[in-house]
Records
---
Amino acid sequence: MIVEPTWKRIGLKEPLEENSGQGIGIIILDYIVPHISLYHLKGRVKQVKVHKDLTITCSDVFEEPLTEKVTRDTDHGLMVLSLLAHQSLEFKGNMYSGLAPSANFIFLPTSKPDRIKAGLEWILDQDWNARILLNLWVPQPFGWMSPTNQDIDVQAMQPALDAGLLVVAAGGNSKALNNLHPNSFFVVGGFNDKGANEKSRYEQHPSASYGLNGDGYWRPDLLAPYTYLPLPSLTGEGLNYFGGTCGASTVVAGLCAYLMSIMPELTPNDIRNALTEVGDVIEDFPASIVNGDKAIQLLKEGYRNSKPPSTEPLVKVTDENQSILSKNPLERALALTMLIKKEKLTRDEIWRHTNDESPMVKKVAIQGLGDPVDQLEREKYWSKVHKESSKCGVREVWAYALLGTTTKEELDKWMSLIEYRTIDIWICINLFLRKFYPDAPEMEISPDPDPKIMTSIVAPVLDWYKHSINSSV
């Protein structure tokens, strides 16, 4: 399979200039190591670490000893940085290049809200011209629905918004997610372009999340390629591939940095509004698809729209006892969250809401139930896993609810879920097997939803399971 360069797949007719992103600081919520493949960025990559006592240290990443090693702990940040700034590479007749190779990068490697806030405040006090915050932390936890301003992760990133940065956020790789990013974030979701800019082949990705957030706003704002985002191999010759909405949001952040560098007068909202204004619309897709050339042309022609996104909640709950009866599913979900957290509902009452017509409300109820209280109830959970749909992630939330208290004896039950073939279900199965059957093959979960790929991933585990059954007979 020939995978086209990222620049072509986001609607550009040619690679961006080598000075793309020059002078623009991009803060990235991820961890980075001084990998030899990115040594050309020496002097332009910093890592800001916030310690337990909120003291801060800053290092120039490529002043440290270089490494050629890539591990599960380090590959994510390396691929993010490589997508943004790798050296140009000609491979099989295609020219691959980073989208913002001349930008400056500041990594903030923490997921703890108090440390994110302290780190951002410190970074924004430096003279680094930080213009973009690339937020790669997806919304958590799975079930609750609340106004987004109550989310401690959202609160932690407020300094970036107050300073006028464009917060580009990964939309999430799971339909199990419920309360999505706030409207103040420029949220990028994903679609499956199968590695090429050919609209006739585009399809929705079954894992990418979309829907309403707790304020009533639709998320995401924009879609970008989700699978097979190419970069020079970190361990040898040829290409490696990144994926998910972390990859999709990274390429959009790179495009935004380019626009900021060639038209420094642009505001973050000028860029956000232009990209959403000219995105390619495909019927039934949850958002428009990024089209870089159209946005560049629009902005060069003088388009300016600095109108900020609305953040005033569209749905509010003033009386949860009344709102739980509302015809609006979001209002019911918000009210149910409040009632459960205030411990105003019995377990039987929470159970009744698992039959609500809205997947959003169901996911709140499952979150409220938590772990099953006994074996009889556990069987009800397993029944729900098989009866519910994966379309909005309800089946997957039930599976996660079972995972925390599962036992070795539930092997048959977990293996019965393989047929559903969703990433969340397979993550649950992987975690179960790693804990109780470490000799089982691990499924190397791919962002590619192609049935042939998924069959090849699961085949070794099914073979192991059949052998285990035969051995125990």
---
Amino acid sequence: MDGAAGGLPLDLGLYTASAAFAGITAATSTLPPHRAWGAVAGIGYLVAALLAAGQLLARRRRPDTPLAGTAARSAITALTWATTALLPLAWQSAQRSAGRTDRAQEEVVVVEHSGARLIHDGTPYLGHDTIAALPPGEQLLGYTPYQPGMALFGLPRAALDTWWTDARVWFALATALTLALAVRTLRANTGRHAAADNRARTDAALLRAVQAATVLPVCALTLATGGDDLPVLALCLLALAYAATGRPGRAGLAVGLAGALKLFAWPIALVLLFWAVTRRAGGRYAIGAFGLPAAALLPAFLVDRDALVENVLRFPLGQGLVTSPAASPFPGHLIATGLPAGRAIATGLLIAAGIAIAVHLLRRPPRTAATSALICGYGLLAAIALMPATRFGYLLYPLALLVWAPALRLAAPDGSSSADSPAEAADSA
């Protein structure tokens, strides 16, 4: 499907379906930031669909036209990201700075408050007693269920209250720079060893991978209204790019930075550890992958250990003063809320899935970055489906990881798609 007509039919389908999704979101969402996003993004997706249709017509008239090539498709992808993610983000940030209180999701406020606390108190976390003293309606916002590094994105707002200090602006900047570095890493590696046809295939695969991390509605909507997951995802993709190009130390640093922001990166760090061990580089990789998150936790632990435990452990495990509002209707949530002892059943299924993945990693550790991405993607998809409390937006992780895998395989050091053994590829799929 992706190779048909130079990928243009799939581009057209992506933008058309996304325009429909944005329109439905604008008309039916119960969340004001989401409705505002849909109103702007729908137009951006519609323009992209019209441009993709024009490219398809141009290609049918002249198959070798540069108007339908990868460079032109990349330009439309960049334009689409600007109109469906960056423009809604800037618009909502400006409205919020002007006084609108319904132009950001709760995580934006939480990150900005954690940045202010980091400056004044030396820790981004409030303790149990302090949260308990808040009015009931504000206790949820008192929790910071992130790793300490996420508070850095709240520092600009702590220094100056204006639209460009909105945490989402800095999420977007970090995401763009990190993705650009990942793409450059893979393209440079391909350029050293690949023939022209393989270079073209790699560029096409990279474009599709970038689309999955930027213009896909689950990514564009998340960045424009909340945004905290996108830098984490981008750093994980960069780690996989470094792994594909044989740089375990840099892979560890990238995924370690992601782990210092959010727990979602830790399963990816564990999978890549097995990859690094197959390269006899486990120690070099682990220094960054696990040393950076530990170093980020240490100051908060020394300043207020109980506050750290309350926010990073008790709240995500459902033991805080309030529970997470995450309640997307995935199987785990439906089991937890609809069956007797449902939470225990869902937790048991989640643990069983984790054990199955662990057994697979021990028996067949991934030997390539592409296989690692597949294991991470399918593993996170299973975890999201089975978690008692989760969000639809978390799907951006497995979707981007799975679409990233072909580009990683094409950019492998031997320059072929045979970097995975047949048995390993079949097992991972």
